[in-house]
Amino acid sequence: MAEIVQQRIEERIPELEQLERVGLFTKKEVKSIIKRATALEYKLHRLIINKEDFIAYIQYEINILELIKKRRAHIHYQFKREEIEYPIIHRINSVFSRATKKWKDDVQLWLSHVAFCKKWATKAQISKVFSTMLAIHPDKPVMWIMAAKSELEDRNSSESARHLFLRALRFHPNNKKVYQEYFRMELLHCEKLRKQKEELELAQMDLGEYEFSPEILSAKLAEIVYRESTGKIKEAEFVISLLDIAAIFKFTKELQDFILQDLQANYTEDSLTWDFMARRELEAPGAGEELQTAKGRASDTNRREERCCQVYEEGVKSLNTEPMWTCYAAFCLERLKRKTNVQELKEKRQERLLGVLQRAHNSSLLKEEYYKNWLQVLLSSEDAEGAAGVAMAATQRYSQSVSVWSLSLQTLIHLESGAVGKLFQDALTHVNPKESLPLWQLQVQWSVANQSPEETEAVFKRGLLSAVAAVAMEMKESYLDWSFSTGGYKKARKTFTSLNENRPLSKAFFTKMIQIEKEQETPKMSCLRDYYERALQEFGTSDDDLWLKYIQEELGPQGQPENCGKIHWRAMKFLEGESVERFTSKYTLLQTGHL
């Protein structure tokens, strides 16, 4: 191993001598480089090699390259690159090659090599790296796309890029992203040729027998890609994505028209087609003379939106589905949210949205989340009767949805409806008990604010009987809190006594009672001990903080410090797993006064 390392160091000597001779590095710095490089080389030639050692070696060499670059700029010396930088770049490439052969599956390592090649190495080296990488990772479409993009941008070779895309499609014949980028590449190639032709014509150069193919210049290759891809991927969303790519280029009007005709002819069963066609109406040219005033601009906008709605109306007639109504409602909501100072336009947009939501609801095709938007619009326009009706209708349409019940009940509470109490009972019978906690919390809030203490207590007691642990525990905590706020310490203590034996129990239930006790003018230490002991019966095996707080309580003015040793012994006996270590370290901090 020593001979190999020595040979590697000796290979560096010519470049290091040049660095010193031309004044880029001092003699001391060169010695430092040799020392560090020797240590790194030894790590690379051990029997058991680590990826981190290779990365450290590469990073050190790149740092040297960056330093050379800065010093060249500083002293304005730009010669002898072949003797200084090129050997370092070659060495880094060879180390990268060794690393990627050893750890073939590390994609990030391959990408790091590609990034290095782009910044420092030759363009031919990038192609070699990509070629090796694709032989090992042909299953990753993004790698093929990167390689093709590199061929087009770095080597200016559209032929190689096309060849890579065709190879990629053998491995991924139905991959949307590969087809999209292939389509984009053909359009970029076409754009480049058109620019070349324009420049040559402008220079009036004689091309001899060479001619630019009219088919290629008119994006026929991109059209072939489109036909091939849509033959395999028959989705409106994919077709629209290709149309969006074509729209970036100015010379693709014919291609766009062809794609648009195909979309309208073959994809009318997809709501996205109607949505796309409708939104295109917003981009239609307007009347120039009207756009001079705010009212004129609003009138023109309203006409465009009306045309969009006409397309949507055709869509819901031929495709009466939930996704179609969702697209229509989303468009109307989006337009309503747009700011305008013209009240007429705002009112028209609101009227349009409410009409669409009502019709979608009547068809039982309105999505759950749009009921919230519907209620917000009605409440903002102070239509209490309409909001109450929608709230009730929403619960009938989505009777098992907790979020719909919560939203509807909140709306009816806001409107001070008299039917809220009965609706809470209906809600709890319809929804899944495991998901009912938000409804119980909402009912408690409403009952505390609107009902008598007896009725509120009845709500709590019903909640305590829930078979769902989360609901029962939450009700216990809320009941204790409410008891203290309405009846003071005595009632809270009575409530705690009646509930502390009924499982499931939560830590918050005990800590709340401890807090209530400590807030009294003369807190009873015997009561606090009782609360801690009961809490530790439930959570003593895992909760180290509870033991620590118990010890802190005994160290306080009301406690007996001589009990701390016994509590510590019990904690060490009861606690399990990692909680023992946490308790030990925290207890040590407490003893030294750092906690």
UniProtKB/TrEMBL annotation:
The alphabetical list of record keywords is: Nucleus, Repeat, rRNA processing
Q: Answer yes or no on keyword Lipoprotein.
A: no
Compartments it resides in: Nucleus, Nucleolus
Gene Ontology molecular function = snoRNA binding
For this protein, the record's SUPFAM superfamilies field holds: TPR-like
In this chain the U3 small nucleolar RNA-associated protein 6 N-terminal domain maps to: 9-91
Q: Name one GO cellular component term.
A: small-subunit processome
Q: Which InterPro entries match?
A: HAT, TPR-like_helical_dom_sf, Utp6, UTP6_C, UTP6_N
Q: Which GO terms describe its biological process?
A: maturation of SSU-rRNA from tricistronic rRNA transcript (SSU-rRNA, 5.8S rRNA, LSU-rRNA)
Q: Which residues form the U3 small nucleolar RNA-associated protein 6 homolog C-terminal domain?
A: 306-575
Q: Which SMART domains match?
A: HAT (SM00386)
Per UniProt, what is one Pfam family of this protein?
Answer: UTP6_C
| Claim: rRNA processing is one of the keywords in the record | yes
State the family named in the UniProt similarity comment for this chain: Belongs to the UTP6 family.
What is this protein identified as? UTP6 small subunit processome component
Upper classification of the organism: Eukaryota, Metazoa, Chordata, Craniata, Vertebrata
